[in-house]
Please model this.
Amino acid sequence: MHDILKKLAAVSLGLLFCTGTALAENIVIKGSTTVLPIAQVALEAYMKAHPGVNISLSGGGSGDGIKALIDKSTHIANSSREIKASEIELAKSKGVAPTETVVAIDAIVPIVHPKNRVRDLSIDQLSQIYQGKITNWKDVGGEDLKIVVISRDSSSGTFEAWGEMVLHKAKVAQQAQMQASNGAIVQAVSKNRYAIGYVGLGYLNRSVKALTVGGVPATAPNAIAKTYPISRPLYMYTDGKPAGETARFLQFVLSPAGQKLVEKAGFVPLPDVKKPPKKRK
Model:
């Protein structure tokens, strides 16, 4: 009987060890839909090179990703904005130490229907359009058509970045149509001749027309130099300094091969990929 118990104990420990190993090779990533294409191409390449690793990925917005990090339901929180002081305090109260890794650079690009003859808008014009103060395309060099304003929802990091860099924290017009993702904005604008929206650089395609801002196009060099006025870094947040498989995955994203995938996804690779993760205080 004693021998049987010893064998059962050994099997139980073996199962526990295997389970722990399996968990160590699972990575959960949640958050920003802007960072989503980068994470998607990176995880596909990483899992192909490391067959024993499973990585799950979901969107939902930067706010949702950071909330999941604070709730300890994700290993990596994708975010298209910097974590807020209030989120850091909440995280600390739950024993979480948000640590950021910049993985790419992005430009937020205003988009219109391809048939819209407007090609350029200033920051002030964009601000007035999104506040509902300019309501007709003829007032900014277009046709006599009512402007349909399309915006990201409030859980989006892109929404918050746009609010700071374009609206200077003024409120978006009540009549604005709020969308849950970059892809949804592209689809809505592509089907509406009167519409204007904004998306991350990696979401541009031929179904919409990108506008220049103040005469400056959203290109990689302009985003890096910040001569394009609506540029920003993209982040992956972890609880403390990343370790184990999570650290190896982030190292891959920051490697030359990973940064080539950033470019493939339509975003701007980092000019310097050797910066260590930064703990947020």
Summary: The first helix runs from residue 2 to 24. The chain has a mean pLDDT of 90. The chain has two domains: 2-105+233-279, 106-225. The first strand starts at residue 26 and ends at 31.
